[in-house]
Structures are given as structure tokens and as C-alpha cells.
Design goal:
- The protein is mostly helical and 363 residues long.
- It has helices at residues 2-28, 49-66, 72-98, 102-118, 158-179, 185-203, 211-227, 236-250, 257-264, 266-281, 294-300, 305-325, 329-349, and strands at residues 31-32, 44-45, 125-126, 134-135, 145-148, 153-156, 288-289, 360-361.
- It starts with a helix and ends with a strand.
């Protein structure tokens, strides 16, 4: 019952808040104009982060009222998710309004990662696919990592664990940012990831933790009604950062969610890596946008937006189910390698043969 009420509260709040956010966007002039990498028609409001955050917050308030975390460490971690999400939302709103330079955007993202680490949200378990899990612990400061074969432990210097966690959080936020290029794409993939996180947490018999991704999924679905093609409102930076931050932090809060996140978001993650390398090779700043993302290349080849978006949904769902349902770790690695090969081949096939258009700011 708690699960249903939480989901419904987040869903209903997002549905009610979206028209208000659209009105506020036009009133404040916070709208996306046609041009650049986006080829939409007309002026589209971009304060979609407001209904997503409002719906998510409504769900969280119900969680703390109906089923607050009993474990002290879970309580601390979940508080970190809430505080970090609020910081991401406020920073994203500032970027939506004032178009912050990249250094300020990264500053907010690093602050969010620091909040997560300060609330003991960091990647502390490394799953060895060839044997039992290996745990990251803190060794003498003279070593970055050691391996205890008898105990099957990979022991990593604690500061390096923090660096890896910061990379994961900031990387996930920007992967979602890169993905947010077609109507409903990032939002729908986020729904799939959040629902799989919730399902996986329930299967592990966690109590409060699965309610957070369930609330996030409800808020995203409520917003997706207005964001699916043709979109009448965009996520904006605030929505993207809220989504990316929660996918990063919630994926850490129970075992095997990292593999779920990696497989659900495999295509955008591979696309981001490919593009960053390509831009550096062309002498472009890695975070200056263009229409070379995989979804843009497909759209420029004449594939309808809805087909592309639904195709991403299907792939995210299929690979996410592999992560949740298949216990064999070697199979998951094999799926990853197959996907890497297939996406790389597709990117090569769709690579432009002529000079790319001038870069635009990634949004």
C-alpha cells in the first residue's frame, strides 16, 4: 500500500505542477528557442525540473511519514540523496535562468558529489566476476590498491574510492544531459531505470530504499505525459540534474544496482565516451555540443523521433532486465561487450563524411 500511495502522490503532483511550470516559464522568459542542436518548432518552456522535483519531493515526504528508514545508516544516506537533490535542483534552476558557464555547472555537480560522500554514499563494493565479491577497504597510505587472494579482497586507498564516486556522480549527470536531446528520451529512460532500481530493492527485501526510485519514477511519468513527442515542455538543466544525480546515488544504495545503471544507460554512456574522444580529436572542447549524438544522427537520417525514443526505451528495458534477472556476472560482461561492439559499429556507420557543423553549447 505504501508503494502505491508514494507512486501515486509523486505522479499526481507532477501532473498538476507541469502546467504551472509551463506558465511560469513563459512568464519569466525561460524558454528554449529553435536553433542550435535542437530543431523543435516554436518556443518551448524549459522549467520541467519544477514538476519533477515537486513530484519527487511529495513522494519523499510521504515516505518519511509512512515508512521512515529504521536503519541509521540508511537514514543518513537517504538524507544525503534529498539534500544533494535539492542542491542540484537549485543549481539547475540558476543555469536555466542565467545560462551558467561550464565551470559553475561543474562546481554544483562536484558539490552534489561531495554531499553524497559526506552522507556515506560512495562506491565501496567491487564485484569480481570470476569469484566471490571483493570489498574495497582502506589500506596503508603507501598503496593505491592491493589484492588479498586468500580473502578475495581488492583493497583500495580510501581517497581513490572518493575519486571514483565523484567520477560516477558527475559522469552520470552529464550522461543524462547528453541524452536529453529528443522529446521524452532522457525522461523515459530515467523511468525505466528508476522502476528497475525499485524492483531490485524490493527483491533484496529492502524497505525504505526502494520507495525513493519509485517516487522518482512516478514524478517522471507524470512529467513524461507532457514531455513525450511532441513535447510541450523540456526537462531543462534542473530536471536533467535531478534525474542524473538520483540515478547516480540511488544506484549505489544497494548491491548490483551499478550494473543495472550501466546496462540501462549503456547506449548513452557509450555515445558520450565516443563523442568526447571525437571532439578532442577534432580540437573541440569535449563539452561543446553538436548534432553528432547517436539519437541526432538517426534523426538526421530521417528516422522519426518517436521511433528513436521508443527504440531507446526497448533497449534500456531489455538490458536492464538482464542486469536484474541474470545472476551470472560473466553473462552481464558478455552483454556489455556485445553492446559496446554493436553501438561502436553503428556510430562508425553513421559518422558524417563531411565537416561537422559549428559547435553549440551543450544543453
Amino acid at each position: 500500500m505504501v508503494y502505491l500511495v508514494t507512486f501515486a502522490a509523486a505522479l499526481g503532483t507532477a501532473i498538476l505542477a507541469t502546467p504551472l511550470a509551463k506558465h511560469l516559464s513563459f512568464r519569466l522568459g525561460i524558454v528554449a528557442e529553435p536553433g542550435g542542436r535542437r530543431q523543435h518548432h516554436g518556443r518551448i518552456p524549459k522549467l520541467g525540473g519544477i514538476p519533477v522535483f515537486a513530484g519527487y519531493l511529495a513522494g519523499i515526504l510521504l515516505i518519511y511519514w509512512l515508512l521512515p528508514p529504521a536503519d541509521s545508516q540508511d537514514a543518513l544516506r537517504l538524507r544525503g540523496v534529498v539534500v544533494g537533490t535539492a542542491v542540484m535542483f537549485l543549481g539547475g534552476l540558476l543555469d536555466d535562468r542565467y545560462d551558467l558557464p561550464p565551470r559553475w555547472q561543474f562546481l554544483f555537480q562536484f558539490v552534489g558529489a561531495a554531499i553524497a560522500i559526506g552522507h556515506i554514499i560512495f562506491i565501496e563494493r567491487f564485484t569480481n566476476p570470476f569469484a566471490s565479491p571483493a570489498i574495497w577497504l582502506e589500506p596503508p597510505l603507501s598503496w593505491f590498491f592491493t589484492y588479498d587472494a586468500a580473502a578475495n579482497l581488492v583493497i583500495i586507498w580510501r581517497p581513490l574510492v572518493y575519486v571514483i564516486t565523484v567520477f560516477w556522480v558527475v559522469g552520470m549527470i552529464n550522461a543524462v544531459n547528453f541524452l536529453d536531446g529528443l522529446d521524452g528520451l532522457a525522461c523515459g529512460v530515467g523511468v525505466i531505470a528508476a522502476l528497475l532500481f525499485a524492483w531490485h530493492g524490493i527483491r533484496l527485501e529492502q524497505t525504505t530504499v526502494p520507495l525513493f526510485p519509485l517516487a522518482l519514477a512516478g514524478a517522471l511519468i507524470g512529467f513524461l505525459i507532457f514531455n513525450f513527442s511532441p513535447a510541450s515542455i523540456f526537462l531543462g538543466t534542473a530536471g536533467v540534474w535531478v534525474l542524473g544525480y538520483n540515478l547516480a546515488t540511488l544506484s549505489i544504495l544497494s548491491p548490483a544496482k551499478l550494473s543495472t545503471a550501466l546496462l540501462v544507460l549503456a547506449i548513452p554512456i557509450l555515445d558520450v565516451g565516443w563523442l568526447i574522444i571525437s571532439r578532442i580529436r577534432r580540437g573541440q572542447p569535449p563539452f561543446q555540443g553538436d548534432r553528432q549524438h547517436l539519437h541526432f544522427r538517426l534523426a538526421d537520417r530521417g528516422v522519426p523521433t518517436r521511433w528513436i525514443v521508443l527504440g531507446y526505451y526497448v533497449m534500456a528495458l531489455l538490458f536492464g532486465l538482464v542486469a536484474v534477472l541474470v545472476p551470472n556476472r560473466l553473462v552481464k560482461i558478455g552483454v556489455w561487450l556485445v553492446l559496446v561492439t554493436a553501438v561502436s559499429a553503428l556510430l562508425i556507420k553513421l559518422s558524417p563524411q563531411t565537416q561537422a557543423p559549428p559547435p553549440t553549447t551543450e544543453k
